[in-house]
Amino acid sequence: MELVHAAILLHEAGKEVNEANLKGVLNAAGIKKDEAQVKALVVALEGVNIEEAMKEAAMPVVQPVSQVAEKKEAKEEKKVEVKEAAVGLGALFG
């Protein structure tokens, strides 16, 4: 996973994702990786539009707490309305 993060960091910095640059990032972070893994990632990323790949990646959407609370309140209000409507219908047949 560190290799992918290093590649994204290089991409965001506008640097070429190659073996030398990846090794530089990993060394600066104190991470030791097998040279074959570094080469494999560089080969795998050849021809890949990293920007598009990041846009298409499935990312969880986090809602602000205020929106979650509003939705919960709206659901509770709806439940109360349904119960009141059911009581009103019972009065028709009661």
Concise overview:
This protein has 94 residues and is mainly α. It is built from five helices and no strands.
Give a structural overview.
By secondary structure, the protein is an all-alpha fold. The mean pLDDT is 81. Helix content is 72%, strand content 0%. It is built from 5 helices and no strands. It folds into 2 domains: 2-56, Arc Repressor Mutant, subunit A; 62-94.
Roughly what percent helix? over 70%
Total domain count: 2
Quaternary structure of the protein:
single chain
Instruction: Give the terminus-to-terminus CA distance.
Output: 67 Å
Strand content of the residues, in percent?
A: under 5%
Structural class: mainly alpha
Count helical runs.
5
What order do the helices and strands come in, and which of them pair?
Elements: H1 2-12, H2 19-28, H3 35-45, H4 50-56, H5 65-93
Helix pairs in contact: 1-2
Which terms would index this structure?
94 residues, mainly alpha, Arc Repressor Mutant, subunit A, 2 domains, 0% strand, elongated
